[in-house]
Amino acid sequence: MAFADPLALLFSPSGRLDRRTFAYAVIAFYAVGLASQFLFSVGVTGRAGMWAYALAQIALTWVWFVLHAKRMRDAGRGIGGVLTIATLYVLPVVLLVVLIAATAGSSTDQSASSGLGVVFAFLFIYALVVDPSKFGLAIVILIILMLFAYVPLLLALIWSIWAGTRPRASQP
Length: 172
Known about the structure:
Blueprint lengths: L5 H6 L7 H17 L6 H7 L2 H24 L5 H24 L3 H24 L5 H29 L8
Helix pairs in contact: 2-4, 3-6, 4-5, 5-7
């Protein structure tokens, strides 16, 4: 099924979306989502702060919601799960933006502190590889927090696969 209006495909949650169009749209979505991570780089955050990344994540979350809501309607299902996963994805993004904004100084200090953060992260990983026994509980807590940050992304990916495999409902 060719979608007549690409803007309606990406920005309007009403309507239905067949499996083939959904699959193409979701593959393109995840490619753009992966590319949007470059907005988190030192060069971009040094000039634009976290706003470019935050706005991209808001737009991507909305597009993810729209695509999946349409697909769920096409499959004759509700969109409550889609809304839940989209909300769960926004929470770590908001936390990340707030943490970065709280720890960053002026825009000139931000690029220097971001570069210094990369050096500290490298030194931390090096020390962890050389002698992990020194970190004990701190590393366990860090790993658990990182897993919590990645759970919504994993849920979104699993939901996309599940939604794409649902058969079309006979009635809208």
